[in-house]
Amino acid sequence: MEQKPFKKPFILGIDPGLSGALALLNPTTNLAHKIWDFPLSPQGAGGKNIINASILAAELSAIIGDVEIAIIEDVHAMPGQGVTSMFGFGVSKGLVIGMLHAFKCPVFTVPPAVWKGVYGLSSNKDASRALASKKFPNSSYLWTRKKDDGRAEALLLADFGRRFY
Question: Residue 41 — very low, low, confident or very high, per pLDDT cuts 50/70/90?
Answer without folding.
Answer: confident
